[in-house]
């Protein structure tokens, strides 16, 4: 079945899953379940982001990701609302995740050394120390915001270390990430101009750091790696900003929103929390399951480079495809009938799509897993239980799937 019909009386396509209120109100599961069951490759002719194909099950998502020459990241960008490709007057800020081979390969290779197993080993002690400091400052028995106090603090600190960014200004990284990753801004001209201003501020700040390091020996920070790379040392200002945005959003949102999701999810599923509290050896698997269950980036976009067929549907050259990781990670044919639930010992949790698949798979996946795992380990050492005390405030958008605020209170178990 190619599409799901709607009556003429309806003004909103109930299967246009790009609508921000689905994520703000946490009501996205039902339309995606319907799509997976009846139209896993479904054409939405009219949305606030234009026409697109909605790809909602595991197998076709993997197929599209496995054919990067047929389904381009560069032709239309990586979000359903790409700020560059969808506006002929836009200021273009290329980034390597939104480039095709060979540029993507060369630029990705530049930053990949920051995320090798040896680098994870080198950084683990520092990550643990900073996690201990954050947890030891938390109040017990009184309400506070987990997102700001834990998730943002830990991920912003990690980004500052990756860039060797001035510690006192580290919260600027969160500020820039929030502006860069909010695709709803594309609908408002005034906000688009504000976003552009903030991106230029970001670029100017980092250009100063670049100039300070340009004649110095190679160091293990991302700016130094770019400077010493044939593929990235000659970037113009806009490409420089674009790649910074990629690394900031990628390094911030995946980990930050999974750290918030673990607090919310373990409270929502107390049987799974009890299982994890009783057996900390489940933590590595629980990390994968929490990332799957949260899916901190709901989708990625690809653009067909020529006419093709996907699960019996005729895709035309230039068509936009939204790969809904958030739905593929709920695919019952892969994860079972309990795919909507959090199951800390799920046997195939590592098959999740939250990091993508193929050549564009998240370059920082190991680091995200390391940070989340250490957080769970340090919580276990303190016998720390996080109790949600009120409704979360969620991001109202279909790209970053996360939390603005999560009120909690700590208790011992």
Automatic annotation (TrEMBL):
Transmembrane segments: none annotated. Signal peptide: none annotated. Pfam families: p450. Keywords: Heme, Iron, Metal-binding, Monooxygenase, Oxidoreductase. SUPFAM superfamilies: Cytochrome P450. Belongs to the cytochrome P450 family. This is Cytochrome P450. It comes from Sphingomonas olei.
